[in-house]
UniProtKB/TrEMBL annotation:
Gene3D superfamilies: Tetracycline Repressor, domain 2. Residues 34-53 bind DNA. GO terms for molecular function: DNA-binding transcription factor activity; transcription cis-regulatory region binding. Keywords: DNA-binding, Transcription, Transcription regulation. This is Transcriptional regulator, TetR family. The lineage of its organism: Bacteria, Bacillati, Actinomycetota, Actinomycetes, Streptosporangiales. Residues 12-71 form the HTH tetR-type domain. It comes from the Bacteria. InterPro entries: Homeodomain-like_sf (IPR009057), HTH-type_TetR-like_transc_reg (IPR050109), HTH_TetR (IPR001647), Tet_transcr_reg_TetR-rel_C_sf (IPR036271), TetR_SbtR-like_C (IPR049445).
């Protein structure tokens, strides 16, 4: 893929249109939307799209690279917070807000892109960082001891359910849901729960390698 600064003015314009069209298409139709549909939305030919982005993977990782970096920063901030419980809650709240704002990003985050090395490193760092945020909150006695990372999958799945309708209603529903669940995650007065299901983040979207 050519560096953006090296492209002619018209090519740079096409590149911007492609990224905007792809973002909209991924958010509404998922990562499997045909490349031809993205080209039509951008008002260009399929050949032009493939000259700028030779694979679906290269397009997806370019579209969502900034959001992934933001997600990793959210986890880094939680790790830096001297209050483990506050850091845990903040990470949950911010990630769920991102999920509602751009549902396409959640799908991209959960999909493996083995050829996009920097993207994959950032994604793995975010996942491992959240596991450490969880461990610290438990060690501080604030997060219930039986919280499992599978519960994060359940939370995000539930949040997907309210991320429908108007953006205002979805955001309000997400805030309410997350507040309820964070209260249930507190260690104080925690009642026993059924065993955690064998779920990973891949469960949300049937994550698979994109080619």
């Amino acid at each position: 893929m050519e560096p953006a600064q090296a492209l002619r003015a018209d090519a740079r314009h096409n590149r911007v249109r492609i990224l905007e069209a792809a973002r909209e298409a991924f958010a509404t139709r998922g990562l499997d939307v045909p490349m031809a549909a993205i080209a039509r939305r951008a008002g260009i030919g399929v050949a032009t799209l493939y000259r700028r982005f030779p694979s679906r993977e290269s397009l997806i990782t370019e579209v969502f690279g900034d959001e992934l970096a933001t997600c990793a920063s959210v986890v880094d901030e939680a790790l830096a917070d001297p209050d483990p419980w506050r850091g845990f809650c903040s990470a949950i709240e911010k990630v769920c807000t991102m999920q509602v704002a751009d549902r396409g990003f959640t799908d991209a985050f959960l999909t493996a892109f083995p050829d996009a090395i920097d993207y994959e490193r950032t994604r793995v760092r975010a996942e491992q960082g959240f596991a450490e945020v969880t461990r610290r909150a438990k060690a501080a006695g604030r997060l219930r001891a039986d919280f499992d990372l599978a519960d994060l999958t359940l939370l995000l799945k539930a949040n997907c359910g309210v991320a429908t309708g108007t953006s205002e209603a979805a955001a309000a529903g997400s805030r309410r849901l997350v507040a309820y669940l964070l209260q249930s995650f507190r260690a104080e007065h925690a009642e026993p729960l059924p065993p955690a299901p064998p779920l990973t983040l891949d469960f949300l979207y049937g994550s698979a390698t994109v080619r």
